Amino acid sequence: MTAVDEFTYYAAGSPKVTNALVTLTDPYTGSNVVSGVTDAAGGVLFTNLTEAYYGVRVQADQHGDFSTTLMVAADQTFNLKAFLSRQMVSYNWTVTPTTVPDRYDFTLNTTFETYVPIPVVTVEPGAINLCSLTGQTNVVNLSLANHGLVAAKAARLAFASHPLWEITPLVEYVGDIAASSNVVVPVIIRRLPGATNGPSQIGAHLDWELPTDDGTRYYRVPIYVYNAGLHDCDPASPGSVPVIPPPVVVPGTGGWTPPTVPPVVVIPGRSPSYPYVPTPPSFPPPVTNDTISIPQLHYSWLR
């Protein structure tokens, strides 16, 4: 097995992922069968395996995980390439009390690497508190920045519908975000008439792509739009807490992508708001050769 990441395709020397922990498990019992660590060439070899189905999980520091299920046949060498997307961006929330009792401001802080040979894409602001918008119609300028040295391809914005809010970016399909550049997109946020309640958070994200020799990788950066409920902004209401989006399940691969975005939000005097982490899906049919894209920022998948 060989572990690779974006640097394998874009950095000088095509480096592989070293010191990645590779674990083979029994997919029915979940018990460990064997494990090893990738060498300087990003590889690890397991020998004398019994013909059977195996769960494979690969983990490395500052990378997303790789997981799949495969069939190892007798008297054959199975070559598996595991793609682990590099975690170039980290997030945390700052919670600040307001002058209104039991109400808090949430500030999303972003830390990222710059001048690296892959795209590093961020959105600013990454969180929009709808209680802070006082007009019937408001404009928020989103800065879509690429801090890396490689262009992020086919960037596009998406906002979910909501009975109380209409969110319309001036441009949905942004196109390529060049290396070391940013694009500003005005987003019109309008309150809709009516008293039909809706969810407290509106799904929103920026998607972009990265071509590699093994196919195109697809990435997603969430945008937190919260306090959208009918009474979230009432003076007597504490408002809503930004919620980490659920993971993307990749059909047919066995991979599931847990959130790797902001940690637990702790509000003074309250119980912490824990991330949503569901039970992994059941094992799919085995594969004979597979490459799965795991998140660089938040979500990544292969079509």
End-to-end distance: 23 Å
The strand order across the widest sheet is: 14-12-17-18-22
The CATH topology assignment of the largest domain is Immunoglobulin-like
| Mean pLDDT over all positions | 82
Q: Report the biggest beta sheet as strand number plus sense, adding barrel if it closes.
A: 5 strands, antiparallel
The CATH class of the largest domain is: Mainly Beta
Helix content: under 10%
Structural class: mainly beta
- Stretches with pLDDT under 50, minimum 5 residues: 247-303
Q: What characteristic shape results from the CA principal axes?
A: elongated
* String of helices and strands: EHEEEEEEEEEEEEEEEEEEEEE
Q: What gyration radius follows from the Cα positions, in whole Å?
A: 22 Å
CATH fourth-tier homologous superfamily of the largest domain: Immunoglobulins
Secondary structure tally, helices: 1
- Total number of beta strands: 22
Tally of distinct domains: 2
Q: What features would you describe in this structure?
A:
There is one protein chain. The chain has about 300 residues and is mainly β. The chain has one helix spanning about 5-10, and strands at about 1-5, 20-25, 30-35, 50-60, 65-70, 80-85, 90-95, 105-110, 120-125, 125-130, 135-145, 150-160, 165-170, 175, 180-190, 200, 205-210, 215-220, 225, 250, 255, 300. About 0% of the residues lie in helices and about 40% in strands. The longest helix has 5 residues, at about 5-10. The protein is elongated, with a radius of gyration of 22 Å. The relative contact order is 0.17.
